[in-house]
Design brief:
Structural class: alpha/beta
Strand content: 25-35%
CATH topology of the largest domain: FAD/NAD(P)-binding domain
Helix content: 10-25%
CATH superfamily of the largest domain: FAD/NAD(P)-binding domain
CATH class of the largest domain: Alpha Beta
Radius of gyration: 22 Å
Number of strands: 17
Order of helices and strands: HEHEHHEEEEEEHEHEEEEEHEEEHH
């Protein structure tokens, strides 16, 4: 009985099992600390929910964690390659990942935290940890438009695969990479696509090989576009727009509201983390990434608050090393390092 209880006691508990969370767990483990990852979804849950045919905007070596090479014949690896890579890394380091467990509450203090979780069936499990690392990303929380009809089942805040939307009237809301990619793929697979963006043109940060493609499709009328416009209402068979030329109602079967995502500020607030400025930057030591709450570290994109375009896998993957260095100054390793 006591042995089973001991299994739930750790030096470091990482909330989030994406690449950054994995990197944090790996570096803690390599430093000799007993670590565990807890995630409400699968391993690399956000990447799993990316579009099925997505390719990264970066090279394989910039996605590597734990000093494990990412073997890919492609200059820009695909989503499916990344999932395979991160699974292999998890296997190599024998990472303890408790998946499909939602963190309900964190209590206690530095050196003695208790983390209450629930699985998909509502069963509770409590973990104890000396330190907490929050690496929850932001992709799970869409920016809602708060307009009538946004809760209809035809409205999606994530784009997956173009095939189901063949021969349908589809509206894509947004002007950045995700909206451009979705509009292009949907059009190429037989959907009638209308793009709606509140700005005067596609965002200047759309990738250089995507921007001319979407601009040419718009120029030639293959993708309809309304700029300086917004969707004001969604109905079962139509959408209503507010445009520079007045109100427009369009026939519609499906809406992809690709309006961005944000970190879970409410969860961070529940931990006692404070924020600064209009971008809600969490109070955090830039060197060791410990927040204003002793024993609670932040990693990955949440370090940048609402500025979600500043931290990606490429730079967030190094946060684990920063945190591990601080852990070594404050904690005595509880187990030998078995994998280098």
């Amino acid at each position: 009985m006591n042995a089973a209880k001991d299994l739930d006691e750790f030096d470091v508990l990482v909330i989030g099992a994406g690449p950054t969370g994995m990197a944090c767990a790996i570096e803690a483990q390599r430093a000799g600390f007993r670590s565990v990852m807890v995630d409400k979804g699968c391993l690399c849950n956000s990447i799993f929910h990316y579009p099925s045919h997505m390719t990264f905007f970066t090279t394989p070596e910039l996605l590597e964690i734990g000093d494990i090479p990412f073997p890919s014949p492609n200059q820009k690896p695909a989503r499916i390659e990344a999932l395979e890579y991160y699974r292999k890394v998890a296997e190599y380091y024998k990472l303890d990942a408790r998946l499909y467990r939602l963190v309900e509450q964190v209590t206690g203090s530095d050196g003695n935290f208790e983390v209450l979780t629930k699985d998909r069936f509502g069963r509770e499990e409590t973990f104890r940890a000396k330190k907490i690392v929050v690496a929850t990303g932001y992709y799970d929380l869409p920016n809602y438009m708060n307009i009538p009809g946004e809760d209809l089942p035809k409205v999606h805040h994530y784009y997956d695969d173009p095939h189901p939307y063949y021969d349908l009237d589809v509206v894509v809301i947004g002007g950045k990479n995700s909206a451009a990619i979705a509009a292009l793929e949907l059009w190429r697979h037989g959907a009638r696509v209308t793009l709606v963006h509140r700005g005067p043109a596609m965002h200047k940060h759309v990738k250089y090989w995507i921007l001319p493609d979407i601009e040419n499709r718009i120029k030639h009328g293959q993708v309809a576009a309304y700029f300086n416009s917004r969707v004001t209402e969604i109905a079962p068979d139509s959408v209503t727009l507010e445009t520079p030329k007045g109100k427009r109602t369009l026939p519609n079967d499906v809406v992809f509201a690709l309006t961005g995502y944000h970190p879970d500020f409410d969860f961070l607030t529940s931990l006692g983390v404070r924020f600064e400025g209009k971008d809600r930057l969490p109070v955090c030591d830039a060197e060791c990434l410990e927040s204003n709450v002793p024993g609670v570290y932040l990693a990955g994109v949440i370090v940048a608050g609402a500025r979600t375009n500043e931290i990606f896998i490429e730079n967030g993957r190094f946060h684990g090393r920063q945190i591990a260095e601080d852990l070594k100054r404050k904690l005595k390793p509880s187990e030998p390092v078995t994998v280098s």
